[in-house]
Amino acid sequence: MNNISLETSALLRLPPQSVESEIVVLGALLLDNNVFEHVGDIVSEGDFYRSEHRTIFSVIKSLIEQDKPADLITVFDSLQNNGGADAVGGLAYLNSLAQFVPSAHNAKNYAEHIRESSIKRKMIAASDQIASSAYEPKGRTTAEILDEAEQAVLCIEQLRNHDREILTLDQHLDDSMARLEYRAEHPNQLNGISSGYVDMDKKINGFKPGDLIVIAGRPSMGKTSLAMNIAEHSAIKESKAVLIVSLEMPASQLTDRILGSVGRVDQSRLQTGQLEGDEWSRITDTYESLRGKPLEIEDSGVNTVAGIRAVARRALRRNKTLSLIVVDYLQLMVAAGAGENRNSEIEQISRGLKKLAMDMQCPVIVVAQLNRGVESRNDKRPMMSDLRDSGAIEQDADIVMLLYRDEYYTKDLCREPGVAEINISKHRNGPTGVVKLAWLPSFTRFDNLAY
């Protein structure tokens, strides 16, 4: 054995399997077709290790789904008609399956064993494919191979979580009533993550788990600042775990921005180090107050949904919770295998981000660019149709916020200098409308307006 390589040793091992469990499940189904209600959503034909078991299960399933009895005779007849009876051992083998099982009582547990073994085999196959890609990249970059590897593992994990219980209407109604009663008892409490802005919270009532929120605008409108300010409020004021995925700025620049924004210190002086007056003490106090806050910045260049998902899962494992994900920004992301059609690629990305929000059960805020069409109009206020590259963003988003600062275009003629309009142009579960915030450019910060 010492002379056998690890690779050869692995090849000599049988793949994970549970043949006895397969026999029990098939025998139980032949004895009692009602067992299918308990195992049909756990195992599929491809989960069985032995080919004859895959064939038998497929026939049993087909008969049951046609509301026909699936017993020894009907299954055998079906196999004979398809020319597959001899390949599975004929009537004698079917009879042995039924005799092997004294009762159909624990079929669900055995089905889960089959499923677990199947998933382990898929893990081995994925590992082999990952190794093959690493040995023979065929022009793919290491980052692309890593993305494929993460996607392969993710697909297997989703198979592992396939059996989440489907709730009845009564259960959903009970949950709805419980939520309603809680809201009635806590009238001033938001239903989701606070933005930190009073008027925005009144409109949105908090960013909820599963929400995809798009913050869009033309360059220099303050898109990143607004997303960062919301993230700062969540992590610093409410101590909620936040992940920022930055594709545009390194973590060092974002950290400087956070210090200046929270400490109310001029960003230009922060960059030169020439602080004035009490700015040093404010920065020092801010530094101390920020330490230990659950905010993480990912700036390694991860630019796919699969990559962001992997980063988010690592953050979740570290923090035990994840309340908000911010991605800056959408148009810098890519989708594997999308080809040269950018609209199709953006569509794939936006769908992936929405699914990420659903799977991670936390809101995802993504910053997005608006197209140049805004600049050609007399009224520069953006519209939903200005979302760049694809209408899929508009379709997938639960909330779309369009930024506009009149001062940027009209300069000295602006009637409301220092005021930004946040047009909540889409709100899947609530009202739309414009929210006004104070814009403090020296701090790269939005604030509540003082009325």
From TrEMBL:
Keywords, alphabetical: ATP-binding, DNA replication, DNA-binding, Helicase, Hydrolase, Isomerase, Nucleotide-binding, Plasmid, Primosome
Molecular-function annotations in GO: 5'-3' DNA helicase activity; ATP binding; ATP hydrolysis activity; DNA binding
Domain of life from the UniProt record: Bacteria
Domain (SF4 helicase) ranges: 186-451
Protein name: Replicative DNA helicase
Xref: InterPro entries: AAA+_ATPase, DNA_heli_DnaB-like_N_sf, DNA_helicase_DnaB, DNA_helicase_DnaB-like_C, DNA_helicase_DnaB-like_N, DNA_helicase_N/primase_C, P-loop_NTPase
Enzyme Commission number(s) from the entry: 5.6.2.3
UniProt family annotation: Belongs to the helicase family. DnaB subfamily.
Pfam families: DnaB, DnaB_C
Function (record text): The main replicative DNA helicase, it participates in initiation and elongation during chromosome replication. Travels ahead of the DNA replisome, separating dsDNA into templates for DNA synthesis. A processive ATP-dependent 5'-3' DNA helicase it has DNA-dependent ATPase activity.
Biological-process GO terms, alphabetical: DNA replication, synthesis of primer
Reaction catalyzed: ATP + H2O = ADP + phosphate + H(+)
Record-level GO cellular component terms: cytosol; primosome complex
